[in-house]
Amino acid sequence: MILAPMKMLDLVKTSGWSEYEQKTAQLIRTELTYLTSGTTPPAIRLKNLNGQKVSFEDYPNTYIYLHFTDPKNTICRQHLDELKTIASHYKDKLVIINVIPEIQGFTNDKGWAGLFTTSASNLEETYKVKTFPVSYLIGKDGKLLLSPAPNPIDGLDRQLGQLLKSDYMKEMQKSNKPGVK
């Protein structure tokens, strides 16, 4: 019988292994699950263009599209243009947080959707951002839902539509409406 790696790591906690082996197993588990769906997203220090703090906790019970982007990049601008349409479809259900590099004098004169923020966190360490764009979808429960998430021009709208349809069906089932399964 072959056990999945996570189950094997769990056995180290319960099988009388040494403290060193238990710590090693925990480090391996942490590395294997880092940025995976269902985990808590890493803390990141964000501030909007006015210098005010922005936090995921500011948006309870809402999907958060965390979009690392660079408005000077042609591909990123295409994604930001597409996000305008997507944001209009999901106004009350989705918050878009665009994390951009420190750009002196940047203003959102294109009317792109979402909040524009910068980060004091090391993005390469916290979210493994090496190139732009890269995105994550944080669920209403505050956990990573899609990691990484589809880009705006590569299926994000469709994925959000499926999620919200699923949410709607679950709500209908909870309310015991006849004929809904």
Please give a structural write-up.
The chain is of the alpha/beta class and 181 residues long. The chain folds into two domains: 1-33; 46-174, Glutaredoxin, CATH 3.40.30. The protein is built from five helices and seven strands; from the N terminus they run ααβββαββαββα. The chain has a seven-stranded mixed beta sheet, with no helix packed on it. α3 links the parallel β3 (63-68) and β4 (94-99). α1 (5-14) runs antiparallel to α2. The longest helix is centred in the last third of the chain and has 19 residues, at 156-174. The protein starts with a helix and ends in a 7-residue tail after the last helix. The mean pLDDT is 87.
Short description:
By secondary structure, the protein is α/β, with parallel strands linked by helices.
**Cα radius of gyration in angstroms:** 20 Å
In the sheet with the most strands, the strands line up as 2-1-5-4-3-6-7
CATH C-level category of the largest domain: Alpha Beta
Overall number of domains: 2
CATH topology of the largest domain: Glutaredoxin
Topology at a glance:
Blueprint: H1 5-14, H2 19-33, E1 46-48, E2 53-54, E3 63-68, H3 74-89, E4 94-99, E5 115-119, H4 123-126, E6 134-138, E7 144-146, H5 156-174
Parallel strand pairs: 3-4, 4-5
Antiparallel strand pairs: 1-2, 1-5, 3-6, 6-7
Helix pairs in contact: 1-2
Structural key phrases:
181 residues, 7 strands, 5 helices, 35% helix, alpha/beta, Glutaredoxin
